[in-house]
Specification:
The structure is a single chain. With 445 residues, the chain is an all-alpha fold. It has one domain. The longest helix is centred in the middle third of the chain and has 33 residues. The two termini are 15 Å apart. 42% of the residues are buried.
Length: 445
């Protein structure tokens, strides 16, 4: 067994047996990809206004009626913002990549005992959290009636949103992809993989699409870290895999969107679940670009000034579990006044880009604090993905945080911090179980 002096991390190259990460698996990719999709969706929705008159129904479906006016100065400010976020996140990533994993953990992290124990700790937490949440929901709403009436948002509104047992439900984000990953490696029975997926699906009805999407990125992190045959796939297989992932993802999001928002779209005149999902995706992607463009133009032309202060604006990166005044989803709708009346959009859209929301809430001083936070996230993502096996999956949690830069800052959200703490706790318990198993083998021999 390794001695205790091996606990300290050391700098140096990664162990030779570890597969290299693909070049695209970096913070810059996760940030830039969704940003491009967001502005592309906004552009397409803006063009569609030339072929149809603006109406209340159109705003309800697409998220905005009149496209924001862009200017060279505003575009320059947005380019500066995203360049700063990508650059600082990349610096953090590069600082973290040369660091070796804790040798004591890395030495046992790919053993079957460690991986099973790690998974079971997380699965137990997820089952307890989801079970407790549904018991709490049943006190305030009928689950079957909410599903039958396609008003699944009642689930979320039945929970307090404060830190407690219900927070454990977010462990499903790790449990489901790890279960599938270990089943594919023949470390676990398929029953455990199915259990993780069922718990994730149950949590997705509470936490909307976020938990499903984050779990997908966690599996991606596990796959790129553990797949030693990445170069063996032909171009055709890669295209087929991408299409399959898209179809499965679109279908899952369509089902979730139908159960949560079908009544809203019916009132707007849409009856097809596929069309509902397309409108949902379009507004989801396009509105943050709409708000960003309008706010950037207002800031650069002096129409909206909000400086903030070096002290109070630090709250821009304060963990949400330290914020004691929780706002329910239905009470978080925003009007144009939140953004200095610089932009027009549907008020139910309340995650309208890190750029605009940080300025609206904390002023200009909030921007540098947020940029630095993403640098820390880049460092943590690198450190976690340096580990072999299941621990690397938690690097996908931070990768997903980067993929939300176009919309919302979630690095300091309580559930993200919980998932990182759960990773450390589960690794400690699994390491104890693996070393205990090693001692038993040593005694036998």
């Amino acid at each position: 067994m390794l001695s205790s002096d091996t606990l300290a991390p050391t700098a140096g190259p990664l162990p030779a047996e570890q597969p290299p990460l693909p070049r695209w698996f970096v913070p810059a990719t996760f940030i830039a990809g969704p940003v491009i999709l967001s502005f592309g969706a906004w552009w397409m929705l803006a063009l569609s206004r030339d072929y149809q008159p603006a109406s209340a129904s159109a705003q309800e479906l697409t998220g905005f009626g009149t496209p924001s006016q862009s200017s060279a100065q505003g575009i320059a400010l947005l380019a500066l913002w995203y360049t700063a976020v990508i650059s600082v996140a990349t610096i953090g990533w590069r600082l973290g990549r040369p660091k070796r994993p804790l040798p004591r953990v890395a030495s046992v992290s790919e053993t079957a005992v460690f991986q099973r124990s790690y998974f079971l700790v997380i699965l137990t937490a997820a089952a307890a959290g989801v079970g407790y949440s549904y018991l709490k929901i049943m006190r305030n709403a009928s689950i079957l009636e909410s599903l039958a009436s396609q008003s699944g948002n009642n689930f979320t509104n039945s929970l307090s949103g404060s830190t407690g047992l219900e927070t454990l439900r977010y462990a499903a984000i790790l449990a489901a992809p790890i279960g599938v990953y270990l089943w594919r490696k023949k470390v676990l029975s398929w029953r455990f993989a199915v259990a993780g997926l069922v718990i994730l699906a149950a949590n997705s009805l509470i936490a909307s699409r976020l938990s499903l999407l984050m779990a997908s990125v966690v599996f991606l992190a596990l796959w790129v870290r553990g797949n030693r045959g990445q170069g063996n796939w032909s171009g055709g297989k890669k295209i087929a895999a991408a299409l399959l992932i898209f179809l499965v993802g679109f279908s899952a999001l369509a089902v979730l969107n139908y159960f949560r928002n079908a009544n809203y779209y019916r009132e707007a005149g849409v009856t097809s679940p596929v069309a509902m999902n397309l409108y949902q995706m379009g507004s989801y992607l396009g509105v943050p670009a709409q708000v960003s463009i309008g706010v950037a133009d207002a800031v650069m032309h002096g129409a909206w000034e909000k400086t903030g202060s070096p002290v109070s604006s630090f709250n821009a990166v304060q963990p949400t579990f330290l914020q004691f005044k929780k706002i329910k989803k239905d009470d978080s709708w925003k009007g144009a006044n939140v953004y200095g009346n610089a932009v027009v959009f549907a008020p139910q859209m309340f995650t309208n880009s890190v750029f605009a929301d940080t300025y609206a809430d904390w002023g200009m001083w909030g921007w540098p604090y947020t940029v630095v936070l993403y640098g820390i996230a880049g460092y943590m993502m690198a450190r976690l993905t340096n580990y072999p096996g299941v621990i690397a999956g938690s690097g996908g949690v931070l990768a997903y945080c980067f993929s939300e830069v176009w919309r919302i800052q979630i690095v300091s959200y309580g559930f993200v911090i919980f998932l990182l703490l759960l990773t450390a706790g589960a690794a400690f318990i699994a390491m104890w179980a693996a070393e205990r198993a090693e001692r038993r083998v040593a005694l036998v021999h």
